[in-house]
Amino acid sequence: MEQGLLKAVFIAAAAIGLMALSPTGEWRKGDPAVDKCTAEYAAIDAAVQQAGTTDAEYARIDGFPYFRLNRFLASYDFATLNAAQRTEWIDHLVQADKDERAIEIGNLPATKRGELYGRLERDPVTMTKACADAVRAFDHQKPEAHKALPPRAVVEATDAAPPKSNARTPEQIAALTAATAPPATGTTVFEPMGTKPMSAYTVKLLVDQSRSKELKIPEPKEEAAERLIGSFAPMVSVTGEPDDSMVIPVWKDGKIASEYNAAVAYAKFSQARWKGEPVLQISYFIWFKAQPLDGLIWRVTIGPNGTPLAYDTVHTDGSNYVLLLDGSLKAPGAAKLPEIPDGSRLVLSIDGETHDIRHMGAWDGVTRDNYLLVEYDRLRRLYHHDGETRSLFDATGKSGTGPNAPRQWAHHKLDNGFYFDAPDLLQKLTAVK
To answer: Hey, which residues does 257 pair with through a beta bridge?
Structure first.
């Protein structure tokens, strides 16, 4: 009994000390099962915070420890959703928290995971799944919870401004998609392994089939995800030594380093809004051998007809943003999309020293090397040592220190004041309603 009492005291103390991380809803008092879950959430947060494995990709919601959200989910107006749409929206918030906690708990040192397991008397990941269902069902019956949720479902813009970007001149913007690429020596051309571009019809079909029932959010899974990522993956032509580009970030001797066991690009789906409808985006993260680590993000926004609506790119520290648009759209400083014939693949010509894109267009040459496409989330579970894992990013969404440190998804604040993951970024830049 004494041992059980000590465990209860520990969990209660964690709940009190971690109110800023997972506060108890003021309407959620007195139910033993819900109180237990709330205390267990706080105990997990305490262990994660102490070990430094907090993940910053999704934002927490005060009073709702089983919810997390991103800017796209936060863009929904709860008041305008019908009952079925609200249920689906909440499903996304619950799943986001489960995914985040699985990463945070998985990155705990083995000894800390064991201690947490002993204190909770059940597996922490299993506990989060069970408690999400229990607390959600309880809150669903409480008008106070429905009233409290919408104003708290926000993502704060707390990231520092990015380093000063190298503004491109109008001539440099035009040269990005000029008919003739600038001459380059010492280039290595990488091609995505085992993939081929698809027709716009097939792309549209796969995207539409992946849409959720109520909110029509495109969320490709499994084979459809692989085909879409492979279809839009660019060729990559980089000047300099081949081992200096498309590297793999790793933890080595307690620091972030890079390896060239294979050329790799990390791919991630996201969603944006275009004329009121959700559209699919695919981002490709390319890393370079540099100290500190440096990288480039290349993103395609897929239009309703299955063709690219826009391309944009930014360095992983949030600097040097460049936008390319369909010929029917205009924005200050934006270039026109390059013309890519059906069945052809886009090639990005990148300066191996500055890591800036110099040119882009259709590829018609000979490749020298292949690269692998892997999911972006692997960066949040990098091998650390002795079978343990650790994220590339810290609890603030940065990797390393200094103004040029790479930032995690959802933390790329652009020099125009917008966020790279803002769902209305394209609409704001083009002034399209």
So the answer is: 250
Span between the terminal Cα atoms of the chain, in Å: 63
DSSP 248: E
Summarised one tens digit per residue, pLDDT across range 298-317 is: 999 999 999 999 999 999 99
C-alpha to C-alpha distance for 61 and 66, rounded to whole angstroms: 9
Using an 8 Å Cβ cutoff, are 131 and 66 in contact?
yes
Measure CA 423 to chain center: 13
Q: Output the pLDDT for position 326.
A: 85
What count of residues does the chain have? 433
**What region does 333 belong to: left with phi over 0, alpha with psi -120 to 50, or beta?**
left
Q: How confident is the model at residue 368 (pLDDT cuts 50, 70, 90)?
A: confident
What string of DSSP letters covers 52-111? T----SSEEETTEEEEEE-HHHHTS-GGG--HHHHHHHHHHHHHHHHHHHHHHHHTS-HH
Q: How far, in Å, CA of 247 to CA of 262, rounded?
A: 7
d(C-alpha 420, C-alpha 186), whole Å: 32
Structure tokens at 243: 């081992």
Question: In whole numbers, what is the pLDDT of the chain averaged over residues?
Answer: 90
CB atoms within 10 A of CB 230: 17
- In this structure, are residues 402 and 292 in contact, taking their beta carbons and an 8 Å threshold? yes
Answer for the pair 197, 159: CB distance below 8 angstroms, yes or no: no
Residue 77 Cα distances to 94, 330, 402, angstroms:
18, 28, 37
Backbone dihedral angles phi then psi of residue 232, each to the nearest 5 degrees: -100, 0
The token pair at 372 is: 């692998």
Q: What is the DSSP string of 106-154?
A: HTS-HHHHHHHHHHHTS-HHHHHHHHHHHHHHHHHT-HHHHHHHHHH--
> Where does 339-406 show beta strands of DSSP type E?
346-350, 357-362, 369-375, 382-385, 388-390
Amino acid (1-letter code) at residue 286: I
**Burial class of residue 288 in the structure, from the number of CB atoms within 10 Å of its CB (0-12 exposed, 13-18 middle, 19+ buried):** buried
CA separation for the pair 172, 358 (Å, rounded): 8
Q: 4: Cβ–Cβ under 8 A, 6 or more apart, which residues?
A: none
